[in-house]
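Technical annex B. To support the medicinal chemistry partners, we prepared a structural model of the target in complex with adenosine-5'-diphosphate, based solely on the information shown next.
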Amino acid sequence: MEVRGYWPIVLGCALGACLAIAAVILLQGSQNTGLGVLCLILIALLFPIVGGLAIGAFRAQRQALLDEVARETALEAQVAQQRAAVDTLADGLDIAIIICDSKAIVQYANRKAEELFRFEDAIGKSILAVTISYELEQLVLNALRENRSIRTEITIPFPEEKVAVAEAWPDITGRRAFLSLYDITALRKLERIRQDFVANVSHELRTPLASIRAMAETLSDSGEDEELRGKYLVRIVEEVDRLSLISEDLLILSAAESNPVRHQRVDLADLVRSTVSQLKPKAAEVGLELNYEGPKSAIIAANAIQLTQVAANLIENAIKYTPEGKVEVSLAQDGNMVRLTVSDTGIGIGSEHQERIFERFYRVDRGRSRATGGTGLGLSIVKHIVEAHGGTVEVESELGKGTTMRVSLPVGNPNSDQDSGQ
Ligand code: ADP
């Protein structure tokens, strides 16, 4: 309170005293009327002064109060603004963040945490109830008990199995714990795919190499047996060809994986038409009809060599897995997309295999794939190239009736030569 705020009280007291004196004098009689009158004059003078000062003081108090309220409101707005900024920041993070009290009750959870554990309102619930993970609850409680940061890799069982790097640490009061979770499921899956790939490659190479070795040993012991010699030499050449095919496909796959797509102006209709023409003799050799239907031209931005590999792989597969009937290839432009369809009347693919045929080295029937010179890499090359172009590939098939492969590709901007990331 300001000093001048006391003046009205002091003057009020003086006024009261004057009033009292005046009243006593006036009530006692008229001996001291001069003093009484003086008191009344003083009262008359003091009234406006006291009133003015009181009003001034009241206004000053009111202003101070208003200023205080305004300061507090501004402070609250600032705090709310900062909180909203922190919330926005935390919600934008790719890391799940949960804050718990000393009993592992959730006080805060960001959006990523809600997505990871698929909960909506976690505040006030125990972390065990929210995450269904005993491991996480123990991590939080141990971090609080031991007053240190603990980091570990955990498996989240619910709602779907995920692997995450979890870290819990206490705040300075030791009464709250922060928990961060970084989802590494995709990373682990990628690692597993790479490990499987290396194992598959060595397996795929080992089989022909073992045959070559066994046949070479037999040949060296076979003496002058010309018939056996001829038979084994043919098989050795076949196995070597197989190895060459695998290494070629591996190189195509690795090039598709490591190089960004170099977009050029490509006439897809021309490209598909000439691939069909080149493969017609192959189809005719096994008694199959191979037809193409499509526009005269379909200009898109793409990599011509890679799209030729896509069309050739799909048509060759259709020929390989169709004992009789026909293979139809068609192209259609639909707005900003072009669709390449390869349909056959072949053996078809069981629904349980349809999702897996795009995996590297996956074959429905290993023996048949081997007999037709397959490497098990054709469709994974197709998928990789198509996705690197921003497109999709789908399969529709019925066992014994046939298969349809549909590739959708964006037209892009055919007039600009440019690199695009994969
Ligand atoms: P492969 O070299 O064995 O043909 P791909 O990766 O091209 O390998 O195909 C994977 C598997 O998908 C093949 O082994 C085959 O079982 C199946 N497949 C692919 N295309 C067809 C098709 N048109 N009809 C039937 N099965 C197919």
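Notes passed to the chemistry partners:
The pocket of adenosine-5'-diphosphate is lined by residues 317-318, 321, 344, 346-347, 349, 357, 362-365, 369, 374-380, 403 (CB under 6 Å).
The two ends are 70 Å apart (CA to CA).
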